[in-house]
Specification:
The chain is an all-alpha fold and 141 residues long. It has 5 helices and 2 strands. It has 2 domains: 44 residues; 81 residues, PGBD-like superfamily/PGBD (Muramoyl-pentapeptide Carboxypeptidase, domain 1). A two-stranded antiparallel ribbon has the order 1-2. Strand 1 and strand 2 form a beta hairpin. The protein is globular.
Length: 141
C-alpha cells in the first residue's frame, strides 16, 4: 500500500515530456487509474473473468463447473450441452443427462479445440467451452 501511495505521489508531480510541460493530475485521478490498472492485471491473471458469466452468458443454467462424465446429470450438464450447441452447433437436447451423445459431442469439441480428447468436461474443457460458446463468431468447426 505504501508503494502505491509513493508511486501515486510521484505521478502527481509536474513532469516534462519532450520539452512540453505536463499538467499535474490530481491524486484521485491517479488513484482511479491505479484501480483500473489493478483490475486489468487481475483479469489477465484470471482470464475466466473476461468470459461472460451469469445474465450475459449465452447459457445461464449455473455458474458451477464440476468435472462431468458419462452418467452426470443436472443443471451443470444442461450448461455444458447448451455451450456445446453454441460452440460447435452440436444439436444436443439440453436435457441435463450426460449420455453417449453428449460424450460424443464433447469429444468432437475437444478435437476441434485442439485440447485433450477424453469425452469428459473438466477445467480445461469448461474454459474452452465457455469462451467459444460466448464468442461472437460461434459456432466453430
Amino acid at each position: 500500500m505504501r508503494r502505491v501511495l509513493t508511486v501515486l505521489a510521484a505521478l502527481a508531480l509536474p513532469i516534462s515530456l519532450a520539452g512540453t510541460p505536463a499538467v499535474a493530475a490530481s491524486h484521485s485521478t491517479h488513484a482511479t487509474a491505479a484501480v483500473k490498472h489493478a483490475t486489468a492485471v487481475d483479469q489477465l491473471k484470471h482470464p475466466a473473468a473476461l468470459v461472460a458469466q451469469g445474465p450475459d452468458d449465452v447459457c445461464d443454467f449455473t455458474d458451477n463447473r464440476p468435472t462431468l462424465h458419462l452418467g452426470s446429470s443436472g443443471a451443470v450438464v444442461q450448461q455444458a450441452q447448451c455451450y456445446l450447441n453454441q460452440a460447435i452447433d452440436a444439436g444436443l437436447d439440453v436435457d441435463g443427462e450426460f449420455g453417449r451423445i453428449t460424450q460424443s459431442a464433447t469429444r468432437d469439441f475437444q478435437q476441434c479445440a485442439g485440447i485433450v480428447v477424453d469425452g469428459r468436461i473438466g477445467a480445461q474443457t469448461w474454459s474452452f467451452l465457455s469462451f467459444w460458446a460466448n464468442a461472437p463468431d460461434a459456432p466453430f468447426c
